[in-house]
Design goal:
By secondary structure, the protein is α+β, with helices and mostly antiparallel strands. The protein is 30% helix and 35% strand. The longest helix has 15 residues. The protein is elongated, with a radius of gyration of 16 Å. The two termini are 19 Å apart. The mean pLDDT is 94.
Length: 122
């Protein structure tokens, strides 16, 4: 079977210490991640077996380990690391679009969040 289907993990929340400023590392904050994963349609769709697809429980854990792991200054770098990590873990992923939202970005005004989206092709 050929084709692509998409698995989406929406609004995954994690506490981490990313950012350029020292207080961001000291205080930490919540980050929200969306992962849109284009997966090669293989036998999993026919066999109804999780073995041939992206197990979204494991995908969540991969995202969590990356977000709560080493500090990154830029959420752009964080998003790329998430995309690469997911593509390395699951050979079936052909494209990963990752969005990282930072609600408490240190800006001189009021906003809902700062958001970065990247698209990575495996």
């Amino acid at each position: 079977m050929s084709g692509i289907y998409t698995i989406t993990l929406q609004n995954c929340a994690f506490f981490a210490r990313h950012g350029v400023h020292d207080e961001e590392e000291f205080l930490g904050q919540r980050f929200f991640v969306d992962a849109e994963l284009d997966v090669a349609a293989g036998e999993a769709l026919v066999s109804d077996s999780i073995d041939g697809t992206v197990n979204y429980g494991i995908a969540f854990t991969v995202i969590e380990e990356i977000v709560t792991g080493k500090r990154r200054y830029l959420i752009e770098a964080l998003a790329l690391d998430i995309a690469k990590g997911l593509c390395e873990k699951f050979a079936q992923i052909k494209r990963a679009q990752i969005t990282v939202r930072k609600p408490n970005a240190p800006v001189p005004g009021v906003l809902d969040y700062v958001q970065v989206s990247i698209e990575h092709f495996a």
